[in-house]
Fold each of these.
Amino acid sequence: MSLYRDVTNKPWDQVGLPDGIENKPVFAVSNERLALTVFMIIASVIFSLLLVSYYIRMGIGDWVPMSIPTQVWANTTLLILSSVCLQSAVVFSRKQSTISVVSRAGLSFGIGGLLAVAFVFGQYQVWGLLAETGQGVRSNPANSFFYLLTSVHVAHLLGGLWVWSKSAISLIQGSTSEHFRQTINLCAIYWHFLLVVWIGLFFVLANT
Amino acid sequence: MAYVPLADQDDAHALHDPQTFVTKYIWSQDHKVIAIQYGGVAIFVGLIALGLSIIMRLQLGFPDTFSFIDPAFYYQAVTMHGMIMVIYLLTALFLGGFGNYLIPLMCGTRDMVFPFLNMLSFWFYLLSVLVLLASFFIPGGPTGAGWTLYAPQSISMGTPGYEGGILFMLISLGIFIVAFTMGGLNYVTTILQARTRGLTLMRLPLSIWGIFTATVLGLFAFPALLVSAIMLGFDLILGTSFFMPAMMELGEQSSYDGGSPILFQHLFWFFGHPEVYIVALPAFGLVSDVISTHARKNIFGYRMMVWAIIAIGGLSFMVWAHHMYVSGMNPYFGFFFATTTLIIAVPTALKVYNWVLTLWQGNIRLNTPMLFAIGFIFTFVHGGLTGLFLGNVIIDIPLADTYFVVAHFHMVMGVSPVLVLFAALYHWYPKVTGRMFNETLGKVHFWCTFLGTYAIYLPMHYLGFLGMPRRYFEMGSTDFVPASAQALNANITLAAIFVAIAQILFFVNVFWSLRNGERASGNPWGATTLEWQTPDTPPKHGNWGEELPSVYRWAYDYSVPGHKQDFIPQNEPGEEYEKTHHTAGGHS
Ligand code: HEM
Ligand SMILES: [Cu+2]
């Protein structure tokens, strides 16, 4: 492994260009891809810490497991479909030489994002629904955590939608650059990540 | 996506030289300008925090003398002083300031890989500072909960700043974390991916290793602060009970129930302890380079230094509960955390030995940066040793929450990094400004600061042994603290005022030399690392002119036997000849 070799060699014993004339990035991926990966690790840390707090708080005794409204299932379906659309945008974009709004890649990308927007609205409705039925944020620590976890998750999704909307606008204006293919790729990866996070959160929320 | 190395995008003209004043100096995407912006704002808030510390000292040294200091104001000063110094000065100046300036230059790149994100990072940082400072002007003033913001204290009625200060603090921290994340993604990606040809990881100067590892720590640790801030915000605004137990508030039963204050402490210190190394590791890195350069000797045990930095970084996530010995915990936990805490002292001590061994038989030039660097070794050893005491549960319990702890963390995290900051500011000043600073003024500044801080913090250890508690507005009358302690406190205050005033020397020097200093050559210290080899001083936009440098050797070829100069720049090709006789340098 070259990383291992790199950190174990004796730098004072070598003069010259050991790696040849090219500079050697540590990871053979684009900068954006690496930054996204690091960001997803940070986000995982955030969600893990929230879950740790969740379990610690659960042990205190005043915890009443909440009943999850059925609409959450519908929202989850939206998020899954959203991920599917973005993934198909990736697949289509590989086959297309130019990407426009009406192309298959462009359409899947657009619909995928809109489905995510729908998910956000859906979650918002769930919050209202819970509040109306007396299961508001203060009613029980389990409910507090429901609001906390869903809103932090939605906040991450909104970050993704911000990137998505910028690309969608440039797509509509027809001014997509070579970068666009990569943006689709990165959006899809991020979407899948947030989907996995959501399913994990949903599982925990529904079962405890 | 295929990877396109930055070096292949070699065309300097593609970088679009900024034309107008606004794009050049305000909405700038140039890492050097952003670094100076970061540095300027950080030093500015640092001065405010310094002023707040003088207010605290006035109260402690001369109680009942200053009518404008009431208990609430005192606690607000304590809180804002601590938070500003740790986060908005040290973290921002080391990473946002020095990180931004040095990473692209030391790695031989034209800029950070995401310049726009870098610019955003600074503006978010500025916003977080403005929100923080705004809390001074709202009804109720800033929060007085202590920099640790422990729940339930921080969001209970009766705590200064309950009306809004605490909310501003939480929002400001949130914005800061966003800013840090944007900067941090840049630093990590640039260092990992964009280094120029020939610059392997093990050829990086230790400054970069320190900044890199600290950034990674920050990216992992700040989420804990963010999570605790969000949850505390929920408790404050929405009335949830994550951290808030059932309790009486101003004589009435509060609406909270069942929350866990200990959970807050765990989250806070899971951030808080790594945070001290987020500040310390860049300092370790910078000081290594300053020492090696001015001792004209390669750093002793380079690989050990790198591994020590990484080991400290990893271990720093396993010791947090040593801040909570007195909060009550399972004795086995206490044992575990005491053990890890003492283990972390091993790589730390190793670094100290290596600095000293680098000095050993070096050709030491006692100029201003070097004085500050050597001063750092003293203060750091001093603070590190008291840390070993506090790391033992049984010794910590009587000393926790006394001035001994205040002395410990100020030696190790206050004075030491600040000495490194000065060393680094003086060391890189010629590169940043193109002028030399005034050496005499610099030395006077050093001695005033160094001796002055000892006059402040050394007696505090003693006060701690006496049992003088920290975070008290007034001592009142206690049997165990003798009246003479008051005389000591008054003297500490005088020393603190002296040190604060002495900092004027630094600012006079910086601003006077900007116009009147001697013009600096590109490499006035005879240093090896890349930032000293730029075609222009100060470096122009794009840093390297037409062609990026290539790196042929490690960062510490000082006093190589058989070579005409006592240093060989990293980008000098050279032949293999000297390497075979290269054992006199101190490593083996
Ligand atoms: C040799 C390694 C070290 C050990 C064993 C150590 C140990 C400790 C312990 C046990 C405490 C808790 C004391 C108490 O509250 O009762 C403490 C506090 C503290 N330490 Fe260290 N420490 C070490 C190095 C450092 C370094 C390198 C820094 C910063 C650069 C640092 C900064 C702090 C701070 C800021 C606090 C006080 C936080 C607060 O309560 O407000 N320590 N240290
Ligand atoms: Cu600690």
Amino acid sequence: MSTPLTARIVEEHANASRALPPAGPTAARRRTALAALTASGLPTSRDENWKYANLRPLERLRFVPAAPAQPVAATDLPAAIPGFARYVFVDGAFAPALSAALNATATAVTPLCAAGDAAGTSAAPAHTPGADADERFALLNEAFATDGAAIRVAAHPEEPVRLELVFVASADAHSGASYPRLELRLESQAQLLLIERHVSAGPGASFVNSAVTVDVGAGATLHHYRLQELAVRAIVFDTLCAAVGRDACYRLHGINIGAQSARSTLAVRLTGERADLRLAVVALGEHQQVQDTYARVEHAAPRAHTEQVFRGISAGRARVAFNGKIVVGSEAHGTDSRQSLRGLLAGPEAEIDVRPQLEIYTDEVRCSHGATAGKLDENMLFYLLSRGLEPEVAQRLLKWAFLEDVVAKIGVAELRRQIEERLALQVPEPFARAESA
Amino acid sequence: MAASRTPLLAIDDLHVSVEGKKILNGLTLQVRAGEVHAIMGPNGSGKSTLAHVLAGRPGYEITAGTVSYEGRDLLALAPEERARQGVFLGFQYPVEIPGVNNVYLLKAAVNAVRQQRGLPEVDAFEFLGLVREKMKRMHIEDSFLSRGVNEGFSGGEKKRNEVLQMLVLEPRLAILDETDSGLDIDALKVVAAGVNSQRSPERACLLVTHYQRLLEYVVPDIVHVLVRGRIARSGDRTLALELERRGYDWVTGEAA
Ligand SMILES: Nc1ncnc2c1ncn2[C@@H]1O[C@H](COP(=O)(O)OP(=O)(O)OP(=O)(O)O)[C@@H](O)[C@H]1O
Ligand SMILES: [Mg+2]
């Protein structure tokens, strides 16, 4: 199914042979991805789960990997998080000067360009991205990405490993795309705290297409904090495919604040018995931003547990959407899933759409879902005004309160502080916190 | 003396409708500094409407009449300005605001008043001490400090929290809308003690209540009966006793 768009992608791919060497360890993989992409085409707004995404920019975007526009300094990056080893990628390429030393002990962090297929980290991913039609942007990443992080975490007797990956977009979309890429594997019983941030350096009209694969082995625990805080002119497509094994625990916190237009596709399969997933997404849209998230959780094993939470605020003329789907397969008896999706409309011209979907192919499950979208509660607002608060402060306070229960679950104190500062919607001081003894 | 001063609150011939329905029909009432007025009246007679209109809640249409507070036009002020000028409404149904901490709200409210008066913000540590002391007086337990505004509070706890806020804010005019409803006997005494501690020659209180019992503890200077949106009868505290004996029919019949 060749379309003018895929034809152009193929052409750009062919012309980018300098950036994308036709030989070498990842070349075959790229070719396969490109062929798959040509066969399937990229999603269009007619596709079921793509109604709210902003796909128009694709017509004018360039797909070749961009060369970094300017040197990025440590001062361009967000403040470091104590205790976390930081690895920085600029326009998809590893930046050793800004990064902690690579190590190959219990945790192996390997730049993909160095590793190729040789490191074995990327061998046989638990879940092949692009296999599902909603994951086609991952194919685009696979076809063009030149670098990325391969992380393998072995079981570690003591503390969980703490890593921070910062993906910086510096190039303008005119000069090409940025392809952040992460292949993560936690071996059985391993523990990892991972912060994954997407930020901009420079004016930030970048095109970012990120792809992440996650494999949480049996009994392993992953706390994964994903922050999308790109500059206001950036366009980002993001695809995360995860598999969670037996007795494994995956906590995925997504905070989507940045970019002009953002689409995130999260596909999580619970493949092992008693796998435990908590997926919580916060999205803020203002001005003319588009924040679209599609989260699909598939229960493919018995007695697994999912909690899916969304809190979104749409202000100005923004469009914020969350489509949360839970599929309970025929083998997934004893499934326990909960969905709590809430949207807040903070302006007469803003749009919000929250959609819970449930597909169940077995008996004996406990699945509950709640979804609401509405305006700020007028009784709450008046209560605060009647106590002397400025209307503007009162509104910010209520927006904050709307997000608070999700943000409070971010277990890394310094990260939570930074997020609060961003989300705090400039409230005079942190007020959600207990002030007790 | 008192009578010669201009009233703290003067409501004159107030007419209010909600969604086209007339609720207050020519209500006139004067409250002087130092006084406590009780407002009684049957369900739906307009007591909460009056309280809300005084606090500035949107959605009410004032079709005629005036309200002056400290000699100025109260109705011209935004709700938050009224609060900063010392008007306090204790809600009949206090709302729960999960995610906004109780103490944060108290502090923000106090600082709003202080800002108005050109004072610096309160010292956080001293403030917490003050709140703790008043909490003790209201028999509010410590966990309150870490909870969201009214979050998961029982009916009685919410009412005590309203009084706590009043004690911290020290308003000049307190309007308490059925703050005694739903309280157990001990809580009623605690709330009454809280209200009494606020009595002073500079301040006044409008107590909306259905029960004579509260008025045994907080002795009002004047009792009014509101019927169909206007004051049908006023008298001293014995009026409350008489109402208890004879019921509202006695007054509503007369007012009709
Ligand atoms: N928003 C509204 N829309 C329509 N009618 C309203 C509205 N608010 C109040 N009313 C009506 O106004 C009348 C007075 O209500 P109000 O709450 O002031 O009574 P009240 O004297 O406080 O009664 P109670 O003793 O039950 O608390 C009632 O008939 C009520 O139904
Ligand atoms: Mg009432």
Amino acid sequence: MPVITFPHVAEAQRALKMLMNDLGNEVIMPPRPSKRTLDLGVKYAPEFACFPVKILLGTYLETCPQGVELIVTSGGVGPCRAGHYAQLHKKILRSLGYSVDIIVFEPPRLYPLDLLLNVKKLNPRRLSYRSVYECVRRAWRKIQALDNLEKLSHRVRPRELSRGATTRVYRQGVEWVDHAYSLKEILEAEAAALEALQKVPQDPEREVLRVGIVGEIYVLLEPASNLEMEETLGNLGVEVERSMFLTGWTRDNTWAETVENITVREAALPYLPELLGGHGRESVGNTIIYAKRGFDGVIQLAPFTCIPEIVARTILPRVAKDYDLPVLTFFLDEQTGKAGMTTRLEAFVDLLRYRKKQAKSPKMAVNI
Amino acid sequence: MPARVGIPGTLLYYLYFPVWETFFRNIGAEVVTSGKTNKKALDYGVKEALADACVPIKLYFGHVLNLIEKGVDYLFVPRVVCLNGETTYCPKFLGLPDMIRHVLTDLPPLIDVRMDVREGTGALYRAYSEAGRALGAKWPAVAQAYGKAILAGRRFFALLQAGYQPPEALEIFKNKSAVQKSPGHFHRNKTELVFAILGYPYLIHDQFVSVGLLNKLSKMGIKAVTAENLPAKPLARQPHILDKRLFWTFSDLAYKATQFLLQRGGVDGIIHLTAFGCGPDAMLDKFMEMLVKERSSIPFMSLTVDEHSGEAGMTTRLEAFADMVRRKKGAAA
Ligand code: SF4
Ligand code: SF4
């Protein structure tokens, strides 16, 4: 039975663990990225490697000593560095004496054969393709359930009456979904958790700001890498909508999703016609879509030295001006501190509140 | 009055200026360049571009601003995606015209044709004819200019292959001087050591950013070989030894040059020159270091330059490295 592990991505590893166990692998769960993870990653990764490379390497260095034989991760197709993470990680881990292998799942559309080959390697029980498919579907549904919970928590948190209630109920809901196994159980757990979240006492009158979040996928998905920014914003009375979820993003990658009749690509076209790899163009396109949908502001999250996001960052001020929408960028690395981030967020939220008031006052004048 | 087309003197300038200049000149335009990088270009760029970009991109902004100051009628800022049918340039090259357009104001019209040979035969010609049309040139003139440009490119490339560094070759191209000086005329002294200087041409050959690296080496009696001087065909034919090939043209080239040199030998040391804040280099540098260590005992050093690199620091590091190489060579002999 191969001993495997994978990166920590928000809560998704819970579903991955279920899937890998179903296929007959032993799983070593990645710990939530911590100071120690970062220290390890920073120590062994190249200095200017992007932040996700360091976090992932740190995570592997925490799990590998426990006897990992195989790391399962996802690739990315150029032209960006994500596609090279895996081989860099492998080389570094091997040079440190861990004889691990890394399996990279590429987008199935481009490498359909790879997918089948990889599944073979991860299927020591030799389940039929049909049962593998069933397992994958169940795991997928679990990730969707987790995503749905997270989405709802973003809406409830800014309106909660007692600080922290949403987070508590949300964590509990995640556990429920985690313990569900069959498809039916997953659906039930999801429904119960969503209901519990809805029931968190809220103030429906509270004036809530809406902020869209765009940027590079890993720092968007993994709260530990962005210092739980969404929670901080929720506590500041901001409802956040994130442009990417594991399930949502994978869908985007497979077929063009339309939002409000224009695709992200079309929205970005006047500003950034070229596909840059990574998610640079999505950052620009989603910012425009958020503007069109009347959001109060947008925050861009990106790893320090992230190539496509730097290009996007250069262009976003113009978008912000054209659409009269405040945009704030965070370049994250191991030195980003929570206190500094919170201060910047507070200032940004104050600005948004002020603008909202200003925008309202002329209308009131007309009413009088 | 002929239209004045500005070509920023950095990034692909070091390899493609002769092609571009010949093309624009032959369709009746006047070509203006921003000249060598200087302190002003750097300060400009730092102010206008953002703090998070790599030095070469900041410099590009500086060069563009210089051209705007010179009052050019058009700016040639091509979107060079892929020229070899296999690898693409760094994503920042791909987004270059967009960054320029949306950061700077009061720009002259941009000629931002997209060059991607993967679009099929004739893609390059189409890109140039679009550039020609932007200047109002008609097709026979464009076709002729294109032909001449390609030839100029070949001649320039031949100079590089003969051992000239791009700035020397550009000098020969500009002065139309017959090739009299021998390659590496910088290297007057008797050379005892040969170093390979790998990295991006717009770093290595920019005397200002590289803090005169090549000159310093020559003064120290060290001969420098760059990827531009290595025979193109064997270089391109290097096997792909990484699980996944490096996506970016210049990075891929630097890696292959390392492979090639380890195989062929003839260098005493390898220096990788990299820019602070460069995305691809974070990977490339580690891959190169590991490759050199795995396959040889040739000393390897990576040198990072940024906008504050000082003469003194660079000299110290070079001297220390050269000493180490000499000692090693002495011990082996
Ligand atoms: S998108 Fe950014 S973080 Fe991701 S690989 Fe590219 S540079 Fe690194
Ligand atoms: S390759 Fe590196 S130095 Fe060159 S433009 Fe890209 S990030 Fe900047």
